Amino acid sequence: MEKVKTLEKASIMDKVKPQGMSNASVIHLIISLFFMFIFGRICPTWSTVTRMGVQGVSILIGSIWLISNRFGLVFTSFLGMFAVVVSGYLTGNAILSTTLGSDVVFQLILVFVFVYAISETGADAVLARWMISRKSLNGKPVLFSVVFMISITFLAALVSSLGAFMFSVAMINSIANAVGYEEKSQWKKTMMTGAICTSSIGGAILPFKGLSLMIFNMFTVGIKASGIQINQVAYMVSALIAGLLFSVAFGLSVGPLFRVDFTKLRQADVAAITREGGTKMNKAQIIVMLSFFVGFFYSIGMIWVPKTSPNYPMLAGVGQGFWFMIILVVLSLIRVDGKPLINIDQMIGKAVNWGIVFAVCMFTVVGMMISDKTVGIQAWLGNILAGVFGNMSFPVFMITLVLATILLTNFFSNTATAVIIGTLTAPFILQYTTSAGINPNAVIPAVVMSASCAYLTMGAGGSSPLYLGLDCMKGENKWVWTYGLIALVLEVTITTGAFILCSYIL
C-alpha cells in the first residue's frame, strides 16, 4: 500500500513538473516563486522598512535562489522584472526605459561587441603571447601575476572598471588557451577574481568620474562647510598607494592563498606558443585595439573640456554609449586587405551575452527598489550602523568603516551603500580631523574602493553579473564564497592599512 502511494505521488510530480526538470529543481523553483511573489506580501514589516521594501528584499532573495540553482540568467531576469511589475513599484515600460534604455546597458552591449572584435582579429591572443614571452616574466608566474594585476589597476584608473574587467577577461582566456589551463582551473578562477577586484579598485583612483565623483562631492560639501581644505591630490595619492599595494599583495597570494598550480605557466613552451601566431600585431589588430581604448577615453577627455566651450553641449550630449557606437560605425567602414575590418550586423548577434545584459537590467531594477529612500531600508540600515561608529580610535574606526562597507555592498546597491556609509561617517571623519589631525582626503577613497569591490552576489554591483556569469564561475558558488571571501579579506587588510597610514602622513 505504501509503495502504491509513493508511486502515485511520483506520477503526480511527473505530471506537474516541466519535462526534463528534476524534482529538486521543481522544489527550488517553487521556493523562488514563493519569495518573489508571496513572501514579501505576508512577511511582517519591521522598523522603518515598508511593505514595498519587504517585497524588494524578497524578490532579491528569490532571484539569487534561482540563479544559484542554475535556472539561467535570462529566465531569472525575466521572472525577476515581472515580479517588480507585480509588486507595483514600476510599470513594465518604466523598467524598459530604466534598463535597456539606459546608457549603462547600451554601453555594456557595445563593449561586448568591442571585446568580440578584439578576439576575432586575434589581438588578445597576440598580446597574451607577448606577455608570456617576455624574458623578465617567462618562467616567473608569481611576477607575471603581480604585473598583470598592476596593469589592470592602471587600466581601470585610466579607462573604466567595466572596460578594464572586460579586457582582462579576454586576456585571461587567451593566456589560459595558450598555456593549457582548463575552463574550471583554479588559476583561471583566481585570475578572474583578481581582475574584478583590481578593476574595481583601480576605477576608484581618480575622483573625476562615476561613483568616485559622486561620493567625493558628497563628502566635500560637509567638510568644506567646516572650513577644512579639500585636496584631490591627496585623494589620488592615497588611492593609488592602496590600489598598487593590493595589486601586488594579490599577485603574491595567488600561489599560497589561492592554491594555484603554476606548473603550466612556469613550464610553458614559449617558442611553440609564439610560433603559433607571433607577438606582433597586424594592421587590423592595432586599429581595433586602439579603438577600444579611444572609446573609453571619452569619459576622461570630457573632464578636460571647458564647460564654457561652445562645443561642450554637443560633446557632452553624445555620451559614452553613443561614442562607442560611432567608433564601431567607423571601424565597419575601414577596409584592410580589401575586407571590412568588422561586420557589425554579424558581430552584435554573436558577441552579446544577453543573459548577462538582462541580469544587469533585473538587478539594477531590484537594486533601485531596495535602495529607494521611500521603502525604508536605507533608514533601517542607517539606524543599525549609527550605533556601530563612534567611541573608537581612528584605526579601529577605519577597519570598521571598510569592513562594514564591503559587507553591505555585496548584498546591497553599491551606490546606496556609499551614500549610507558616507552620510553616517562624515561627522566622525570631521571629528577625527580636528582631534587626531588625520587627513580626510585619505579616508574618502576607502569608502569608494570598498563600495566598488562587490561580486559575491548577482545584486552586488554592475560588474557582478559579468563575473558570476563567466563560464569558469558558473555553478561555483562554494568557490566564490570561500576563495572570493579570501580576496575580500585581503582587500580589507591591505587597503585599510594603506589608508590609515596615508591619513596620518599626507
What key attributes describe this structure?
disordered N terminus, 3 domains, transport, Citrate transporter-like domain-containing protein, 1% strand, globular, 25 helices, mainly alpha, 506 residues, transmembrane helix
Mean pLDDT: 84
Taking strands numbered 1, 2, ... along the chain, how are they ordered across the largest sheet? 1-2
Encode the helix/strand succession as letters: HHHHHHHHHHHHHHHHEEHHHHHHHHH
State the share of residues found in helices, binned by percent.
over 70%
Domains, number: 3
Number of helices: 25
Q: Nearest-angstrom radius of gyration? A: 24 Å
Structural notes for this entry:
This is Citrate transporter-like domain-containing protein. It comes from Youngiibacter fragilis 232.1. Keywords: Membrane, Transmembrane, Transmembrane helix, Transport. The structure is a single chain. The protein is mainly alpha-helical. The chain has 3 domains: 74 residues, no CATH class; 234 residues, no CATH class; 137 residues, no CATH class. The chain contains 25 helices and 2 strands. Strands 1-2 form a two-stranded antiparallel ribbon. α19 packs parallel to α21. The N terminus is likely disordered.
Give the topology, please:
Layout: H1 2-16, H2 23-42, H3 51-68, H4 73-87, H5 92-98, H6 103-121, H7 123-132, H8 141-158, H9 161-179, H10 186-202, H11 210-225, H12 232-253, H13 263-266, H14 270-277, H15 283-304, H16 312-333, E1 335-336, E2 339-340, H17 344-351, H18 354-371, H19 377-386, H20 394-409, H21 414-435, H22 444-452, H23 464-468, H24 477-480, H25 483-505
Helix pairs in contact: 2-3, 3-4, 3-18, 4-18, 6-9, 6-15, 6-16, 6-17, 7-9, 7-14, 8-9, 8-10, 8-12, 9-10, 10-12, 10-25, 11-21, 11-22, 12-22, 12-25, 15-16, 19-21, 20-21, 20-22, 20-25, 21-22
